[in-house]
Amino acid sequence: MASSSGSPCAACKFLRRKCMPGCIFAPYFPPEEPQKFANVHKIFGASNVTKLLNELPPHQREDAVNSLAYEAEARVKDPVYGCVGAISVLQRQVQRLHKELEAANEELLRYACNVDVPIGMPPPPPPPPLPAALAYCTTDFAAARPRNGGAASLSPPPGLLDPWPDAGSFSGSCNPGDHPDHANQGDTDSSM
Q1: Half-sphere exposure of 40 (CA within 13 A, CB side)
Q2: Sign of CA dihedral 21, 24, 30, 33
Q3: How far is CA 59 from CA 1, 35, 37, 65, 72, in A?
Q4: Rg, the chain, Cα only
């Protein structure tokens, strides 16, 4: 299938043949990109590419041609390793950057904690987070003043899944005995 300008696709032009309507190469090797087909042909061969494209469903052909073109270009640049060589270079670069990031994090931790941590040694662990219930118990209840003579309006911290007592019956401490539901836990029931 010749392009709209009437010139043959890059594959047919390279192979010096007439570009027929329905040419399998035309959609993927436009005349503006002759080097793309030249590389693919040099590495894989035109007949192998034709067989591959004929075996694939049409919606997968473009991805296959792009993969072949990428591998062919990599093989032309590095005949031994091809794209595997480029992947290896990138993996080494990622490893080096991870080491640099770890060193920068250690240095940042030394400045933040004002602690001398020898380079290469693991930094001291950070203090554990305060549990939600304990964080609530450290709330300044004196600051939560009752409005209009009623009870203080206190709400549980987000993420606290335990049942929560009424705000009106909460005395301001976190002792279970202070709550009316728990006040008689130590007492025995005389009716039994």
Answers
A1: 26
A2: negative
A3: 18, 24, 20, 11, 21
A4: 37
What's the pLDDT score for residue 111? 80
Q: Which pLDDT band, with edges at 50, 70 and 90, does 13 fall under? A: very high
Cβ pair 11, 46 in contact under 8 A: yes
- Burial pattern 66-81, b for ≥16 Cβ within 10 A else e, equals eebbebbbbbeeeeee
Paired tokens of 114: 């004002």
3-state secondary structure of 65: helix
The identity of residue 66, as a single letter, is N
pTM over 0.90: no
Q: What is the distance, to the nearest Å, from the Cα of residue 167 to the centroid of all Cα atoms in its chain?
A: 42
